[in-house]
Amino acid sequence: MTASAEARETALLAAQAAADKLATDVSIVDVSDRLAITDAFVLAAAPNERQVQAIVDEVEERLRRHGVKPVRREGVAEARWVLLDFVDVVVHVQHTEERAYYALERLWKDCPTIPFVDRAAPPAADGAGAPSGTLSADDVDPGSSDPVPLTPDPTADVPDEELVEDDLVESDPLQDPAGGPEATGR
């Protein structure tokens, strides 16, 4: 038995919603032969709790617009591993560390996967599409020793804007609003 057409469609919608919010390692596992309670798992990861929550919110909103509502939500408060149960499809959005530790793909390795290709990802040079974060020879400047991706890494640290010394204001929170130390007893 394979996942129903409705479950496949729901899983693909959820996977695309997650990918649209920059989820990594998005995959769909058809667990219909192993579990009687659901047909598919959608697995996605994010590097921080805020992004986990953004992915969860987008998946819920996208599926609600298609008339699918979760019957159960777990882990939302911690946002380390959030589970959204849509009955035929269960969405797991995990912090990257939890995703690596629990390795759900390994647990369900005997189950077939449902192919998912991120529609928003730029196509590879061969047109087949490459997973996000991978580089090809075309992405590297031959004059540089460091490969640089053509698209920015959303998880990279971005330096703060340079501040001019005149923009900085020194303040002492113990001083009164008028600026004198009289209010603090110093």
UniProtKB/TrEMBL annotation:
GO BP term, pick one: cytosolic ribosome assembly
GO CC, any one term: cytoplasm
Main subcellular location of this protein, as a coarse class: cytoplasm
SUPFAM superfamilies registered for this protein in UniProt: Nucleotidyltransferase
Subcellular location as annotated: Cytoplasm
Ranges of biased composition (kind: Low complexity): 122-133
Stretch list, region Disordered: 122-186
Acidic residues: compositionally biased ranges: 158-170
Keywords assigned by UniProt, alphabetized: Cytoplasm, Repressor, Translation regulation
HAMAP family, A to Z: Iojap_RsfS
Subunit text: Interacts with ribosomal protein uL14 (rplN).
Function in brief: Functions as a ribosomal silencing factor. Interacts with ribosomal protein uL14 (rplN), blocking formation of intersubunit bridge B8. Prevents association of the 30S and 50S ribosomal subunits and the formation of functional ribosomes, thus repressing translation.
Family listed: Belongs to the Iojap/RsfS family.
Protein name in UniProt: Ribosomal silencing factor RsfS
Organism: Geodermatophilus tzadiensis
